[in-house]
Amino acid sequence: MHYPLSTPLGRMGVETQIEGPDRCVASIPASGLLNPFTGAPTLAPVAMLIDHVGGLVNHHRRGPDEWTVSSELAVEFAPNAVELVGAAPKLPVVAAGRPFGPTGAAPLALCELTHAGQLLATATVRSFHITAPGHLVEWPTDSADAALPTTLTERMAVEVAESGGTTKVLRQLSDPVINNSLGIVHGGMSAAALELVASAAVNEGQEASPMRTGSLRINFLRQFRGGDESRYEGKAVRVGRSTAVADASAVGDDGKVALLARLTAYR
C-alpha cells in the first residue's frame, strides 16, 4: 500500500506490503537523511516504521468498539546498522511484525528490521486499547504538484531551536500532514525526533569519533500536538569513553511532558 504525501506515512515514504493480525510487513527509505544538529547520517526515521508495523499488528487485534494508541516503543540496533544502510542506499529498510504473547489490554508486537537481507534491528511496540473515537480526522488531499520534501526537518515539520552544548531542542511545528487520525502528532514522528535530539546531545564534541545509537526506549504518556511552544528536548546524562546515555522528552504547548525517552549510544 502506497500512502499519499498528505499523510504522515506518505511524508516519510512508508509503504505497506502485508497487513493483518498475525503478520505485518512494511518498508521505509532510510538513506541520505541527516541529523539536523550533527549533519551525520541518521536512522531516526526507522522509528516511524517500527511504530507503524508494531502498531498495525496490535491494532488488528482490537475489539469491535476499540481503538489502539502506542504506549511503549523500544528498539535495539545492530552495531553496524548505519554502514548496512549506507552500503545499499537505494534499498529500503523492511520491518516484519508479529504478535508477542496474548492480546490482553496492552498488546505487544515484536518487529525484526532488515536491509538488503541483513538484520538491522529488533524492536517492540506495546499499545493500549481505548474506546473507539466517534470521529477520525481526515488527512489533507495531495495537490497535483506535491513532492516528497528532501530534508528530514521538512518531512517532520521540525526546526532546530537550540543546538549549543549537551542540550538539544527541536521545535515541533503545527502541521496537519504529520498528525495521525486522532489529530495528534504521529507517534512514529515523535519517536524519530526524540532519537535526533538525544543522539545529538551525546555527540556534542564527538565529531572525530561519533557515538552510535544502540538502543532507544520511549514511553508515550499523553497526547502531543505541534504548536508555538511544542518541542523535543534531549540532554546528555553521561558521555564516557565508549558509551553514552541521554534522556529526551516531548513537551507540549501546555508545558507538560507527553513522551519520555532514554537513548544509549556506543562508540
UniProtKB/TrEMBL annotation:
Similarity remark: Belongs to the thioesterase PaaI family.
Domain Thioesterase: residue ranges: 183-257
Keywords: Hydrolase
InterPro entries: ACOT13, HotDog_dom_sf, PAAI_dom, Thioestr_dom
Protein name: Phenylacetic acid degradation protein
Matches recorded under Gene3D superfamilies: Hotdog Thioesterase
MF-aspect GO terms: fatty acyl-CoA hydrolase activity
A Pfam family this chain is assigned to: 4HBT
